[in-house]
Design goal:
By secondary structure, this protein is α+β, with helices and mostly antiparallel strands. It is about 35% helix and about 25% strand. It is globular and about 40 Å long.
Length: about 130
């Protein structure tokens, strides 16, 4: 595994662990590098309300900022229905649950590598080996 891949995986874990701290629901990591030219990973989760979606986004931003990483862009944070946070090689999608059900991003690429994250964890130590 290259140094770049290792750094990307660390960024994924930073995002995932911030989301776990704020009790994200239905948390998934998808390795989209084989089907995407613009990013390597999607981190997808849900919140039970627009306020929780906003809190999940804020926690992600703060956790990444502590590591010196700023997003290239953030969309949808003010409304809190679908927040997209672009960290170049990692894109975080935080959905209000009914909006996530409607768009169902995970089903766009059913055969790509991915993992479900146990939302009862307080921290994820490592990604699955296939990611």
């Amino acid at each position: 595994m290259s140094q770049e891949d290792t750094e990307t995986r660390k960024r994924v874990l930073l995002c995932v662990n911030a989301l776990l701290q704020k009790k994200a629901r239905d948390l998934k990591v998808l390795k989209v590098s084989a089907v995407s030219s613009f990013t390597d990973y999607f981190v997808i989760c849900s919140g039970g309300s627009d306020r929780q979606v906003q809190a999940l986004a804020e926690a992600t931003r703060e956790n990444m900022k502590k590591s010196g990483i700023s997003p290239l862009g953030v969309e949808g944070e003010a409304i809190g229905k679908w927040v997209l946070m672009d960290y170049a090689d990692v894109i975080v999608h935080i959905f209000y649950e009914p909006i996530r059900e409607f768009y169902n991003l995970e089903q766009l690429w059913p055969d790509i590598p991915g993992m479900d994250v146990d939302v009862n964890l307080s921290e994820l130590a490592a990604l699955d080996p296939g990611l």
